Each structure stands twice: as C-alpha cells, then as structure tokens.
Task: inverse folding
C-alpha cells in the first residue's frame, strides 16, 4: 500500500496478488483484488498450493465456511503452509475446537491401472474461495472474539466518544453502564484513538464471546453544578473541574 495525498493506493508492480490484505482490512476498502482460489476434496485442501502461505485469518474462514480440517502436502516442500497450520491449531486449541491435520500428498500414478482411479478422483476435486474482511469473519465466528477491551475506569470520564466512533456497536453507552461486546470488535482501535484521556486499549486475544458491563453513576458536580457520569461514585467533581486548580470553577 502506498499512501497518497488523499487515499492509499496499491503499488501494482509490487503487489503479489496474494489477497492476504483482504482478510485483515476492517472496512473492506480494498478493490480489484480477490483471494486465492484453492482446491479441496471433501474436508482436505489439496495441491496445487500457493508459494506464499495463507494467513491464519484465511484458514479460519476455510475452517468455518467449508469445514476444512486437513491439508495434503509435502511438509518439506511447503514449510510456510506447515507454520500457518500450526498457528491456526494454536488458535483452535484455545477454543477447544477441532484442529487440522497435515496429511501426506496423494501418490502419483505409477501404472495404467491406477490412472483410471486417479482420473475418477479428480471428479471429487472442488475449487473455491472464502469471504474476506474482518467484518465477515466476525459474523461467521460470532461465538468467539479476537479482541478484548482494557478499560481504565480511574481515567475514563464516560464521555461516550468511543461509542460514537465504534462502527460495529461493540461499545455502547447504555442507561447506567458502558458495555463492550467482544465478538463484535474488529480491532480497528478507533475507540482508543479518540479517547481524550487514553483510558482504552484494545488487546488481541482469542476468547469466547463475552459482554462486559461497566456501571456508571450520574452525579452533580459540587463546583459547576452540572451533571456528569462517573465510574467512581465517591467523587464530587466532574472531570473538567478536577483538572482546574485552586477552585477556579467554584460556583
């Protein structure tokens, strides 16, 4: 990607057309690119394999959309694929989900009798792609989450800026609480970028979906007499007055 004065563009000469960027873009902003078309038989990916190994994010979609549970390849010839499957299995084990196997590649035909069998097997070979983008992955894997919220309630002023910028509605300022639905988060970190007090951090961590609820209390500031939200019911001044010294905002 090459940033210009107005928008990022793709360097056509440098791009490998691997499509891996499609699986990490949270807004599906990339155009004129397609993911790799891969071949599979039943629940196993088969040759030919791309030189560049797929990302874990792509393999997760193959796991979910096509029920793939194995790859049939020569591990010495495709070490990148071996590492990708290993990383995927670490992810799946955290969720107690079935892991993938690496199977030996099918033997080549060595006599005329076997050629008929291999030709028949080709009928079972299918080819296809998977959905791209973080949003598609979040919709497909709604029972799990890839990102978790770390909130410093001692710093948060419950201004709601994070909820207004969250396009996925993972963060919401409801009546009486700030809520975070982890399965909806796509990890864009816009909430952390707009937080005026740096109270939010988004951590990449695989886990089951959970809804975090942080109750807030509405009080009246003893200095300016305005109502404000706070996670600390023992405070008596709003965040603005707390930043002023010597009672400059005393009513």
Result:
């Amino acid at each position: 990607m090459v940033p210009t004065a107005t928008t990022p563009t793709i360097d056509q000469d440098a791009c490998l057309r691997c499509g891996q960027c499609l699986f990490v873009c949270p807004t599906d902003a990339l155009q004129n690119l397609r993911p790799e078309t891969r071949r599979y038989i039943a629940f196993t990916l088969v040759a030919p394999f791309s030189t560049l190994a797929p990302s874990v994010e792509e393999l997760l979609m193959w796991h979910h959309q096509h029920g793939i549970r194995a790859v049939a390849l020569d591990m010495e010839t495709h070490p990148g694929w071996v590492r990708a499957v290993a990383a995927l299995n670490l992810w799946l084990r955290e969720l107690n989900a079935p892991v993938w196997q690496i199977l030996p590649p099918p033997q080549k035909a060595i006599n005329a009798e076997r050629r008929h069998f291999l030709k028949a097997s080709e009928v079972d070979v299918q080819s296809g792609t998977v959905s791209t983008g973080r949003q598609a992955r979040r919709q497909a894997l709604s029972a799990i989450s890839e990102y978790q919220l770390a909130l410093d309630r001692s710093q948060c002023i419950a201004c709601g800026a994070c909820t207004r910028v969250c396009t996925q509605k993972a963060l919401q300022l409801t009546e009486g609480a700030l809520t975070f639905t982890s399965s909806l988060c796509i990890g864009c970190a816009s909430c952390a970028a707009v937080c005026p007090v740096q109270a939010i951090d988004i951590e990449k961590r695989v886990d089951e979906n959970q809804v975090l609820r942080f109750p807030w209390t509405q009080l009246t500031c003893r200095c300016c007499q305005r109502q404000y939200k706070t996670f600390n019911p023992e405070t008596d001044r709003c965040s603005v007055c707390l930043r002023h010294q010597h009672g400059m905002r005393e009513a």
About this structure: The chain has two domains: 2-137, 143-215. The longest helix spans residues 79-94. The mean pLDDT is 85.
